[in-house]
Design brief:
There is one protein chain. The chain is 32% helix and 20% strand. The chain has 761 residues and is of the alpha/beta class. Among the domains are: 223 residues, Alpha-Beta Barrel (TIM Barrel); 96 residues, no CATH class; 198 residues, Aldolase class I (TIM Barrel, Alpha-Beta Barrel). Strands 1-2-3-4-5-6-7-9 form an 8-stranded parallel β-barrel, surrounded by 6 helices. An 8-stranded parallel beta barrel has the order 17-18-19-20-21-22-23-29. The chain has a 4-stranded mixed beta sheet with strand order 13-12-11-15. The two termini are 49 Å apart.
Length: 761
């Protein structure tokens, strides 16, 4: 019999956590009011956490805490203080994204189990190895993977003692998680900070294909795919929904629990997902899991589809609107029925969760002992009792040379105060059986307190407070920054003769069938430095590793941690690209110490003040992109199905490698976004205007070794009125301090924006 798969449920607030436990979740993931990727959820407070842990563990349910955002430098002290508190709890795991947090936990808080968030975009074997070196114990795999890819990665993960999770139900992002900057760029609400305003769900002007919500996709549901997930060896199936209410959580978790029980007990699946359709959904699709990414993955409405589906099933007709734009009769009936169903669910669940308490458990502590004997401390909880003895014996206070006072209630309550910060609180303290005027060294009381915590905390060793050493800012040294640039076309190879700048050449997401051509390109053009994309799945990752083996480049830039690991293994100098989301000193230290990284791009999401306080490691070079088309999102889905039309119904390997198109969409505020699909690449949505920041060169001197410009031919509303060679010369002049170059750049690259540099995250 195979090990039963874990059912992992969302908990956006206390009631939802209780609902998940009642419905049969094996584990629940929840966030505090800081540092988590669902800031819109109510979340829980630190004071509530221990009570939640007690309730969950009492019901054989684990608790994972989400700290899955990128952490800016000024937040590091507060984060370290929080980690010190969490290390003293019985938490079962912490879900994280930021490489600096990986570094801090793995080095200073090893008792905390590290779970890699879906924001890590984990989709190839090299990334599994990368996470293993960071002591991750579990990884949530990218949602875009099909079952064969999940099977291969799960096998690789298990070889490195890492468990795998797969999202199986709930809202789906159209973009690869961790690589979506749309909310950040357009509204200042970063998805990598848990503030996503979901502009992908917005209404747009009607496209040529007649769509008003061209970025909106159906909800994920792998309800009928449990058997293949079990066969794949997946350890946990995860339900999305930390913004959803408790009745939603209960309904979905209970339905999935029954499906799992049916599979394990009766070896069959129920096809009845009607309960899932009774609560919020945007219709369902398992296209990613099945490897069938077609136009059917989209739905032209972001709103609840439950009533529409019910009306269609019940009345067998399309739902229509009357002339006054009111719901038609069939839909009104369906809505009334659903309202009654949801009311029953809410009342039932509300009554049951009201019977669950997250109050801490009371402790009754009694002390006994006589002079010359060891101190006897008896501890009683609602579930158990135990005795703890001191190591040394009690002495009379009059013979104590330290002049310390005798043991009394006040002293014990003071020394045992940390017990109140656990899942328990001291309700009763009894010293009636204790001889007065006796003394024991204070360190003995601390040891007793730790022994009590050890027993109360599931026999988990008590963790001492960790003082993480402060990173020192390097002495200011004069840095003369150089220019680096990115191209992706052979037509731009002539630029190698026009400049001494570092020239990066972008490799596509899919190049397994063109490996020989790219090996030849770089072999014949030694000036070119390989630039690896953020997403390299399956055979394309293998092709990228083979490329490194054959070309043996002196240096690379990679946005993919799997390629970073391969470069580290092969002792190839590597630079972390701009889509690794690096925003703090510890993330840089992580890359340098763990993976021998030589340098990194600082994320364009952060502002001037957030950049200035970053402390770079010794002998580590920083790069900042000062001119580029702004990536808003990258998706495996075909955007042309919704926008301009596409003859093919499904996205397959051939169309990814051969298709080369562009289009645009415009929202109701008359802001346009540009869709670009290059040969071998995924569909990418770009901002209306390019990023141009000439100020940083003088604002923050002697930090960056290189400033970067993206010269790829990406169509946006930004007009560039001079050729690329002249653009390079203007930027080089600007870096040398040329006073006229700034105006010339702004006049020839327009319109542009540098809002991120001003606002930050």
């Amino acid at each position: 019999m195979k090990k039963e798969i874990e059912l992992l449920a969302p908990g956006g607030d206390v009631d939802s956590i209780k609902a998940a436990i009642l419905a049969g979740a094996n584990a629940v993931y929840c966030g505090l009011d800081r540092f988590n990727a669902r800031s819109q959820a109510k979340n829980i407070g630190l004071k509530e956490l221990n009570g939640i842990l007690r309730l969950a563990h009492k019901n054989n349910c684990e608790v994972f805490l989400t700290l899955n955002i990128i952490i800016v430098e000024k937040e590091i002290p507060a984060l370290i203080e929080l980690l010190n508190k969490l290390a003293k709890t019985s938490l079962d795991g912490i879900i994280i994204q930021d490489l600096g947090v990986f570094y801090l936990i793995s080095k200073y808080f090893p008792s905390l189990n590290i779970h890699a968030s879906t924001q890590m975009t984990t989709h190839n074997e090299g990334q599994i190895k990368f996470l293993s070196k960071l002591n991750a114990t579990r990884v949530n795999l990218s949602r875009e993977l099909n079952i064969n890819e999940i099977t291969a990665l799960t096998s690789a993960a298990h070889k490195h003692n890492i468990l795998t999770e797969v999202f199986v139900h709930g809202s789906n992002c159209i973009s690869f998680s961790g690589l979506c900057y749309m909310s950040s760029v357009t509204g200042g609400n970063s998805g990598n900070r848990g503030q996503c305003s979901q502009p992908c769900r917005d209404e747009y002007l009607t496209t040529a294909e007649g769509k008003n919500f061209p970025l909106n996709i159906k909800d994920n549901s792998a309800f009928s795919d449990i058997s293949v997930l079990v066969d794949a060896g997946v350890d946990s199936v995860k339900i999305e929904g930390r913004i959803k209410k408790y009745h939603y959580v209960y309904t979905v978790v209970e339905t999935w629990r029954k499906q799992l029980q049916s599979f394990y007990v009766q070896q069959k699946l129920t096809g009845d997902n009607s309960n899932l359709r009774n609560v919020f959904n945007r219709d369902f699709s398992n296209s990613f899991l099945q490897g069938d990414v077609s136009r059917d993955i989209f739905i032209d409405s972001p709103r609840d589809n439950s009533a529409i589906h019910r009306a269609k099933v019940k009345f067998g007709a399309e739902v229509k609107f009357n002339a006054e734009a009111k719901w038609d009769k069939n839909l009104s009936i369906a809505k009334q029925e659903l309202y009654a169903i949801k009311t029953d669910i809410i009342m039932n669940v509300q009554e049951r969760i009201g019977q669950l308490s997250i109050e801490k458990a009371p402790l009754a502590i009694s002390l006994s002992g006589k002079e010359g004997e060891r101190l006897n401390v008896s501890v009683n909880t609602p579930e158990t009792s135990f005795i703890v003895l001191s190591d040394s014996t009690l002495v009379n206070v009059d013979t104590n040379k330290s002049n310390s006072g005798s043991i009394d209630n006040e002293l014990i309550l003071k020394r045992f105060k940390p017990l109140n910060d656990s899942e328990y609180f001291i309700e009763k303290l009894d010293l009636d059986g204790f001889q007065s005027d006796l003394f024991i060294p204070y360190k003995e009381l601390t040891l007793i307190k730790n022994k009590i915590l050890f027993e109360l905390n599931g026999r988990k060793e008590v963790v001492s407070h960790v003082d993480v050493p402060h990173l020192k800012k390097q002495d200011d040294k004069k840095i003369t920054p150089s220019l680096s640039l990115l191209i992706s076309s052979k037509e731009d190879l002539h630029l190698c003769d026009e400049t001494s700048a570092d020239i990066y050449f972008q490799l596509p997401n899919h190049f397994k069938n063109k490996l020989r051509q790219f090996v030849e390109l770089f072999t014949n053009n030694k000036r070119l430095i390989p630039w690896f994309p953020a997403v390299l799945i399956g055979e394309n990752y293998s092709a990228a590793v083979e490329f490194l083996q054959q070309v043996q480049p002196e240096r690379i830039v990679t946005n993919n941690t799997g390629i970073a690991y391969a470069a580290y293994e092969k002792d190839i100098s590597w630079i972390a690209g701009p889509y690794m989301n690096l925003v703090n000193s510890y993330s840089l230290l992580c890359l340098k110490e763990k993976f021998n990284c030589d340098g990194a791009f600082i994320s364009n999401e952060i502002n001037k003040s957030q950049i200035k306080i970053i402390k770079k490691p010794d002998n580590f070079k920083l790069t900042y992109s000062i001119s580029h088309p702004i990536v808003l999102m990258t998706t495996i889905a075909c955007m042309f199905h919704q926008v301009s039309g596409c003859k093919k119904n499904i996205v397959d390997d051939k169309c990814i490698q051969r298709c080369e198109k562009s289009s645009s969409i415009t929202n109701l505020k008359d802001v346009s976004y540009f869709i670009d699909k290059e040969k071998g690449g995924y569909h990418t949505v770009y901002n209306e205007t390019n990023f141009l920041n000439t100020d940083i060169v003088n604002d923050i001197p002697d930090i960056f070794s290189s400033f970067f410009i993206d010269l790829r031919d990406i169509k946006t509303n930004t007009q560039i009125d001079i050729d690329k060679a002249k653009i390079i010369k203007l930027f080089e002049e600007h870096l040398r301090g040329g006073s006229d170059s700034i105006n010339a750049l702004k006049q020839n690259i327009y319109p542009s924006t540098s809002t991120q540099y001003r606002k930050g995250i």
